[in-house]
Amino acid sequence: MDEIKDFRGSTPVITRQAEDAARARLLRAMREPAPAPRRRLMPRPVWRLAFAASLSVAVAVGGGIALTGDDGGRSALIPVASVQQLGERAARAAATNPYETVPSPGKWLYVKETIAPLREEPEPEVDRNKRTTLELWNSVDGRQTALDDGKGRLVIHEAGPGVTAADLAEAPVTPERVLARIKEAVAGTPLPSGEDTPDEQRIVETISRVMNEQALEPEVRAALFRALPMIEGVSVKQDAVDAAGRHGVAFAYTGRWERFEIILSPKEYTYLGTYGETVATRTYTTPAGTREVKAGTPVVWTAHLRAGIVGEPGERP
Prior knowledge:
The protein is of the alpha+beta class. It has helices at 2-9, 16-19, 22-31, 47-55, 83-93, 165-168, 175-187, 199-213, 218-227, and strands at 59-61, 108-115, 131-139, 144-148, 154-158, 234-241, 247-254, 258-264, 271-278, 282-286, 289-293, 298-310.
């Protein structure tokens, strides 16, 4: 216990040197626009999360991931007639606060998740057979994040430009209003040179990050669920699987090059995780030459394992 206290007490404000650490790179990949690349990469922002996470100091786990029931929850799946029905069911289920402690100023949201890391940098394909577990602490105002700097110390990072839970909670909270605010945040974050990710995909990915990383009020979460069907290209996927092997139902955005899924539990409609894969074959360039990414290549796979409100970075609920 004394070691934990010492660990918390030594939490520094991040320095320029710490920003170069692997975990700080992970944070920038998740929450800030990437700097203009020095080389042409596959045009999508999400796979950088898997790459950055593969650099972090985390716990790698194998096949021993718990499933929901003997079949991973497949037997609990209830067919959803349309993406509008999924949005409405999820919104109604979001009417209660999922956290044991009510978020309040000065508190932090602890988030634990597992992801499939990259198979081999700089390839965008993730390894379906490996997992990396991550822990983050996000201030409830959405302005700071704490994470391991790769040397066993927590560092606090000021969040980059984007939309926060507080922004989305400003009245009136409606699907149209929260969607407009997210569109504005996306429009204010230009893509790096050479990337052509559609705005619709960036909006869906932003909603996913907000749901995973921020302590949302129930009415905000409900509004986001109702907003997803309003985005062009979003449909329902009846049986989706997160990185922990849990089966659920998903909001699926399909664009020209990729499909990105926000996976929900089939009964409670809580956020489970994400999955993304290419839907068309494409080439990109690295210093080693031109690479081809075939259709059906997995590029992101995550599972949201645990979240809860705590008093400070380093605490766990």
